[in-house]
Write the structure tokens for this entry.
Amino acid sequence: MSLSVNEGVDVKGLVDQVLEAYPEKSRKRRAKHINVLEAEAKDCGVKSNIKSIPGVMTIRGCAYAGSKGVVWGPIKDMIHISHGPVGCGYYSWSGRRNYYVGDTGVDSWGTMHFTTDFQEKDIVFGGDKKLHQAIAEINDLFPLVNGISIQSECPIGLIGDDIEAVARAKAEELGKPVVPVRCEGFRGVSQSLGHHIANDVIRDWIFEKTEPKEGFVSTPYDVTIIGDYNIGGDAWASRILLEEIGLRVIAQWSGDGTLAELENTPKAKVNLIHCYRSMNYIARHMEEKFGIPWMEYNFFGPSQIAESLRKIAALFDDTIKENAEKVIAKYQPMVDAVIAKYKPRLEGKKVMIYVGGLRPRHVVDAYHDLGMEIVGTGYEFAHNDDYQRTQHYVKEGTLIYDDVTAFELEKFVEAMRPDLVASGIKEKYVFQKMGLPFRQMHSWDYSGPYHGYDGFAIFARDMDLAINNPVWGIMKAPF
Amino acid sequence: MSHPVSQSADKVIDHFTLFRQPEYQDLFERKKKEFEYGHSDEEVARVSEWTKSEEYKAKNFAREAIVINPTKACQPIGAMFAAQGFEGTLPFVHGSQGCVAYYRTHLTRHFKEPNSAVSSSMTEDAAVFGGLNNMIDGLANAYSLYKPKMIAVLTTCMAEVIGDDLQGFIQNAKNKESVPADFPVPFAHTPAFVGSHIVGYDNMIKGILTHFWGTSENFDTPKNETINLIPGFDGYAVGNNRELKRIAGLFGIDMTILSDVSDNFDTPADGEYRMYDGGTTLEATKAAVHAKATISMQEYNTPQTLQFIKEKGQDVAKFNYPLGVAATDELLLKLSELSGKAVPAELKLERGRLVDAIADSHTHLHGKRFAVYGDPDFCLGMSKFLMELGAEPVHILSTSGSKKWEKQVQKTLDASPFGKSGKAYGGKDLWHLRSLIFTDKVDYIIGNSYGKYLERDTKVPLIRLTYPIFDRHHHHRYPTWGYQGALNVLVRILDRIFEDMDATTNEVGKTDYSFDLVR
């Protein structure tokens, strides 16, 4: 593979041309978010974590989506109240595929939608009384619930409700954690602040107010999986590898997670972080408060998996290190067979990525493992530290776009004609109609898992089935 | 913890099979036992049984504050849907940006189509100072980038709570030349804390008509022979609107569908992405004030709009998601009455074929008990059709349903012997329906994809016939209205009944006798 991409393509010229369509003020602002990666550059050269421009069709969501949809929603043995009008909870109801095992409606509530369904009178007179009653009703109807979170929607912060007071009173009354989350959608510029707020609430309302479970016995091999939402079972396909090398995963944050796992996390020897963006805050806090080190890892594709397993094992004794080598060797024949089967069908294919959290960089080497090239990538809600972490994954000449607008992405793709677009549901049908293979890289397009060795085989199969399906050849009528 | 590698390149196994392998089953068991600190299996089983009881139902129905699995969304998505049925129209949602991502996602997951709408992306500073600048910059950007023929502005609850004034803001933006002074920017205030998506639909249609028709009482409105039709929020809009146009064509009626998403939500894959396609033309929308009458296909989607139209001197007629023979008869007779044209012979033939199909299949439908949930009009239309088939609607539930709606359902039930065991539940949700089904069992549930959890819990088969349908493909492309549409609905119901029959009689050596080849 070459060391650069988009050779002979005037990508810079394309960017200028696309930006021409904007009114001047917006053009200047957008120009700072788009760059073509230069050799030896210190970073990706784009601004990030800045307000989206009005009226441009940003693909971003909001703080509520970051808290309820991402961080808190998957905690399966708690009930998460979408506090405010009916919509937010309705649209995010079962929308993410964070798999769990449980008796839904009895001891787990992950695919249910609970809302205080605000009416005009609640806006005018405040909703605290209603919230009190809602929590009481939940505890009554779902006695096995282990805790309750209050996920604030926009109006809560605007009408001056005191959800913290309600949470304190109800927690005491019920003897269960009740946690207020100030994740109103207008806070911050994207999902990202919602992740941060949700992390802080775990710090202040779980760590500060609860204890690790009585009788929990630590071992020297206790680790956690932080920032894996178990999309299509990702966390399980990761957990199995960590267990195989001899570690004990005492908590999953937050896919298929439970309140007890959150509470026991301070007992970990090391916190392993997959999605840095959404959960680095709590990892840093635990490092400071409890002295628990944290390490980022990447379980997409065999190159990164092997590297990560070795890095993780290096934190432990020789047995674990030997186990890591054994596990890598054990899966190698399957991995080799997958690459032998799919690489010839995918080699040299160009991919453009646009997703959230960690994937715009973390999946890059999985594509490289299959001989594919990344010609463009970008994040919905990254910060500068994400772009710093991106650069060593991608090659010179790669087009980088931050908070890309639907307009820009359409024009970039149209001009660059990659062989695959890897983005979200809102983008999917735009590009399929243009005749381009597409994979949703938030939901794994209803497939998965993609993490771990087991996941890599599925990833390879899915990229092949998207790119090599005959439908792309019948788009043009012969008349 | 060594185990063989189950994954293989020859036959890649994904989540369907992978997690059933012993190594993952062991992993689940270990995680549960050592780390989850959950409740005992006995306790879970006990509570699970309790949730199915009469006692639980009483507790569940005593609920006042928490809503669980409702059958309603909020106003803006309905308003957005309404706006997207007009030619070249870009919905502009004033308020927080995450909302728009949600609406677009929801509609896209159902129609499997792109869905375009922009946000004014208001954040904390706008919450304090108001969103005027967001409107000014936003309209300018949207107009330059997406080249719409019209921008329809609606609001999220954030903008409503802080009290942004759309009319003033839009005028302000025009003064600042964000869009040309004569560029159409209709608007609707769509607070999420009032009503639901169907009210948002009503508000936006009224907003657009107000824009084009003017607000003056003395507006000069000489009438012509055209008839307007407003479909309402409908997951089957693609199939249904096309069917309505076909029917109008057969009649020879010049019909204007006010908000027609059928082409916009069903664009071809031919190498070109069409951001806008089809829709009611702005010319036709303007001219629609001169129509002699307007028909609403969904009464609860259009109360304010119909009132507004009535004030413009038009006759108005309303239906409740007409499904089946009699409801289609009524629709056609109304079209005939309004147009002065006889019902075309071809439609009469179609009616006969539908009745023939019902006669062929009635034995499998007679006396079957159904739960029906969804929007108020859908519930009414569906219940009526079921009774026509000899089936019995038992639990009829709509979170958007009012007391008035409950009475209307009761009246419909009272008109048929098959409605005896039926009862309407307005303002209730799918967790209530769960209790209803456990305590008073039905044979089938008619609803949307969210019903799959009810089906799993109660083991009562689900038939997906209303928005949203995320986990089945393409049904929205087929009509449910008209005689042809009724035939589609009939087949969907029958298919599920037959699949269920086979699934419950396929045990060799045990139920061989009912596993019939000919049914």
Chain A has 20 helices and 14 strands. The longest helix of chain A spans residues 318-346. The CA atoms of residues 174 and 222 of chain A lie 31 Å apart. The two ends of chain A are 40 Å apart (CA to CA).
